[in-house]
Amino acid sequence: MFSNKDITQFAELETPFYYYDLALLQQTLDSCAVAAKNHGFHVHYAMKANFNHRLLDRIKATGFGADCVSGNEVKKAIERGFDRNQIVFAGVGKSDREINEALDADIFCFNVESVQELEVINELAAKKNKVAKVAIRINPNVDAYTHHNITTGLDENKFGVNAWDLPACADALRQSASLEFVGIHFHIGSQITNLDVYKSLCVKVNEFATWFEDRGFVVRILNVGGGLGIDYHNPEQQVPDFASYFKIFGDFLEKRDNQEVHFELGRALVGQCSSLISKVLYVKNGKKKNFIILDAGMTELMRPALYQAYHQIENISKQDVSAAVKYDVVGPICESTDCFGKEVLLQETQRGDLVAIRSTGAYGEVMSSHYNLRENVRVAFGE
Ligand code: LLP
Questions:
Q1: Where do the TM regions start and end (predicted)?
Q2: With the C-alpha atoms ordered 209, 45, 355, 284, is the resulting torsion angle positive or negative?
């Protein structure tokens, strides 16, 4: 990903910053678009993964819709020119203000997560003489076999309507003149690398679609969410295998004629196109441990501190790849969890070297914070 030319260019820039490789982003988007089109599937980009404008503009230009989880994400999607008919609004805690604004914006649909939320949307839509399109987010109780902090589709999770609440949901839909039922929605978790999980999801989607049809509902949309993982251990494996992913849904979903299948991919589209570039401030060689102290910390990239997430770390100032010293790579924040990697094998490192923390395009820049009164994280783009 990085050539010597890149390194010289980085040397001019103040660190830390997210470097976005827009050519790789485009390649990833194109690959996903082609694979989805082969099956006639629709993709809504999960904007929470990264709402950097330069990325959003590319994603919109590829023809994808937007999956939003807050009123501000809905506003941002509209502002960046996403088609309102391709904007969906999910989230377990939509406020009245957010619902009203989304109704005013005439977005495609609300992914509704409880019976009470159905009642509130019905009431607010009625006041505006509008009919809100809704899909029911169902919690299918499918284990995604991913980190427990990013699992969402089990009975113990707060997301979606549980199976035992579906009769009440169906009643609420029948009684609500200001709601139009369009389909069912699922999202079982993130960073899913075992694709068999999606076969289990398809079985559940088929069952729940039939459940609604048996009760007289037309299920026009099957929204199966996102979650496709990326290879953090091998960032060179840059474009995810979208063809195999979509094929599972093509093979296992019992799609009816005129039914649309929707996806909400975030990480798989943007994860590999970025690295966090940071400068080595200090090297501390101890008896038991060596530390590299970077100018980036958990305030710039929170994933390792929050989920013990692995990101590959490279010293990009060194040409010699053979040298090997083990370092704990840490940031400057006053927290012991402010650590990007323990016992990381790197070339012998000096103050001033540049380090790349790879695969940071998803849930990186957007989860940065001002803790310790840190500055806004900087960004740079390459093509
Ligand atoms: N749809 C819904 C309803 C979601 O909740 C999410 C992610 C997605 C789609 C997109 O999932 P993706 O394709 O990106 O896996 N901050 C965590 C990830 C949280 C994911 C939240 N929901 C991380 O850094 O790993």
A1: none
A2: negative
